[in-house]
Amino acid sequence: MKKTTILSAFLAVTLSCKEYNKPASKEIVKKNEQTSISSFNKATIKKHLYTLASDEMEGRATGSPGIEKAAQYIENEFQKIGLSFYNNLTSYRQNFEHNNIKMFNVIGVLEGKSKKDEYVIVSAHYDHLRMKKEGEDRIYNGANDDASGVTGVIALAEYFKNKNDNERSIIFVCFTAEEMGLIGSKHFGKDIDASKFVAGINLELIGKEPKTGPKTAWLTGFERSNFGKIIQKNLEGTGYKLFPDPYKKYNLFFRSDNASLARLGVPSHTFSTTQIDIDPDYHKVTDEAETLDIDVLTETIKAVAIGTSSIINGKDTPTRVILEK
Description:
Helices cover 37% and strands 17% of the residues. The protein is of the alpha/beta class. The chain has one domain (26-312): 3-Layer(aba) Sandwich (Aminopeptidase), CATH 3.40.630. An eight-stranded mixed beta sheet has the order 1-2-4-3-5-8-6-7, sandwiched between helices. The longest helix is centred in the middle third of the chain and has 21 residues, at 143-163. The chain is globular, with a radius of gyration of 22 Å.
C-alpha cells in the first residue's frame, strides 16, 4: 500500500473517532431525554393515584389509621424502587410527635454520584382531612390534594432510579400534617444544613388542566429565584410550558411545604396545574380520583422530570430564594 493511501486511511479513522466521541447535539440530548421519559406508565400512575385516594385511606388525616395505610403503601413503593434510608434512620419513616399526635414523614434517598453531598428534594404531602361526622359521603379523599403530588414523587423516584445519572443526591419526601400548618416539612427542616440543599421541587394539585391550557403548569414564587427560568429553558421544544403563579392574591408560595425550606433560603417552589380559584372540589368530599385527568397528571410529571434534569445532574444551580418580595 502506498504511503499516501496509509495516511488517508489513518486520517479517515481519526476523523471518524472524533465524530463518534464529540458531545451530542442539544437536539439529540433532548430526543434521548424524551425517549426515556416515555417510560412513565399511565396505568401505574393511575394505580398510585386511585390507591392513595381510595375510601380505604379514609382521607389520610394525620394520626389516623388511614394515613398509616397510605404510609405503608408509599414505603412499599420506595422499597421496590430501591431507595435508601435518610441519614441515620432505620426505616423510611422520620418519626416525631406534635401536640401529642404521633406523626411521620416518609423519606427515601437516591444517592448522587459526583455531588452526593448536594441535595435536591422532591416532595408532596400525603395527609389530607379528617372524615365528616355525618353525611352520605363522609370521606375527604384528597385525590388532587395531594395524592396527585405523592403519585408524582413515587413516579419520579422510579424514573431517576432507572435513569441512574443523578450527580446530586435526591431526597424523596412525602410530608405529613401539611394541612395542619406545614408541620411535617417544618420538622424536616429543623436539623438540615440548608446550604447543602440546592433546590426543592414540591408537587401540589397537579391533576387538572390549568387556565393556561393543555401541557402547561404554573410555579409558585417564580420571581423569587431563577429556578423557574431553568425549568422553562429545559422545557423548550418539548411542547410543555411553565408559567408564573397566576394567583398571587392567595399567597400560595407560603401555603405549601416548599415554604418550610424556602424560609431557610433554599430555592424551593411548588408546581401546580389546578384552577384553584374556581375548582369545585378543593377541600371537599368530591375531591376524588375520578375528577382528575390522568393524561394531565402524567404529562405534568414528565415535564417536571425534564425541567429539573439539569439541576439533578449538577449542570444548573438555582439562585437562593428571595423571601421579601
